[in-house]
Write a structure and sequence with these properties.
about 80 residues; 5 helices; about 55% helix
């Protein structure tokens, strides 16, 4: 589910030093910090808008992986 993939992405971005907190994670991805735990727990569906789409793209995050689990976490040649 998307919440599990968001948690995996969060862990990877922490591990690689791209972010240092859940607040950073929400800011970098353009996700509402107040709703972050709801996203992690699949209580709210993740919506993609122009702002957060461009943020995912800058980081090389594969949107297909995030939404469906298909493919790799990062686009080929990119890793946070």
């Amino acid at each position: 589910m998307i919440g599990e993939r968001l948690q995996i992405l969060f862990d990877k971005l922490i591990e690689t030093g791209v972010i240092s907190s859940k607040k950073d994670f929400s800011d970098v991805l353009g996700i509402d910090y107040g709703s972050l735990s709801k996203y992690f727990n699949n209580k709210v569906n993740l919506s993609i808008n122009n702002l957060n789409y461009s943020n995912y793209k800058k980081l090389g995050i594969n949107i297909d992986w995030l939404l469906t689990g298909e493919g790799e976490m990062f686009k080929q040649g990119k890793e946070a």
